[in-house]
Specification:
By secondary structure, this protein is of the alpha/beta class. The protein has seven helices and eight strands, in the order H-E-H-E-E-H-E-E-H-E-H-E-H-E-H. The C terminus is likely disordered.
């Protein structure tokens, strides 16, 4: 089997959805409630939990919960290469590193530091992890049109989940002057570029883990979900709607290598 045959088969296998049912405009996320909010927005039936990756379609776009972490991020980029998306937007959460990034803030990353390791299987470490510029520009326009503020800057992507106790690691990412820390962006950007999938990200600050009182708990996560998550999904939907309605390409580079 060649790569296209493998990725086509596996995309169907992981999602329980036929290749022809996918839209070329895709939202990807780590959270099942994001899929449910998407379905409620478009007034479509919520998918069951029989698939490894829950997927739903509405408004000419598709949303996929691909799971959490860098390996899953690489997997979804490989699989999406089977449908040649015109635009893919990641709606994820992050921990604020800069004191500027407070709960509920949006971060539009302009680059991601490759601290995860997975992307090394796709490019040498010297290659920067960058989103599709025109896609990030579309998200920026939607946020502006909705009178919403956001931060731009670099984020740090790590495979490490429990580090909030480690002062050495916290000093390391502080010295990097990153806005936030998370687990997928560098992989998504690198593997998206490798697979010719134009991808961007809109991140929601869900905790401030640099201080003990800012570490995410079950209670604080419920508060973030109640106050900020629905709007996060809405901004993602409206960003793709702008691209779909404008019939504009978001590829900022020619894939000629």
């Amino acid at each position: 089997m060649d790569k296209l045959q493998i990725t086509s088969n596996w995309l169907e296998r992981y999602t329980n959805q036929k290749i022809e049912e996918f839209s070329p405009y895709v939202l990807i996320t780590n959270f099942n409630n994001y899929v449910d909010i998407f379905c409620d927005y478009w007034k479509v039936e919520r998918p069951d939990y029989n698939a490894n990756m829950r997927v739903a379609n509405g408004g000419g776009m598709t949303i996929i919960n691909f799971g959490m972490g860098s390996p899953n991020a690489a997997l979804i980029m490989d699989l999406l290469s089977a449908i040649h998306p015109k635009a893919c937007l990641f709606l994820g959460k992050c921990g604020g590193v800069s004191h500027k990034a407070q709960l509920g803030d949006f971060i539009l990353p302009i680059a991601a530091i490759r601290g995860e390791g997975t992307s090394n299987d796709y490019f040498p470490p010297e290659v920067p992890a960058l989103p599709a510029f025109m896609l990030e520009r579309a998200v920026s326009s939607v946020l502006r049109d909705n009178a919403m503020d956001y931060w731009t800057g670099t984020v740090y992507t790590t495979n490490r989940r429990v580090w909030e106790h480690d002062e050495r690691f916290k000093q390391q990412i502080t010295d990097m002057r990153v806005m936030a820390v998370e687990m997928e962006c560098a992989t998504l950007f690198s593997c998206g570029f490798y697979n010719h999938v134009p991808i961007g990200a809109l991140l929601l600050v869900s905790d401030n883990p640099m201080t003990p009182e800012g570490v995410k708990t079950m209670q604080s996560d419920r508060m973030v979900t109640a106050h900020f998550v629905e709007n996060h999904v809405k901004m993602g939907i409206e960003s793709l709607k702008m691209i779909i309605d404008g019939k504009k390409t978001v590829k900022h580079l020619k894939y000629d290598w």
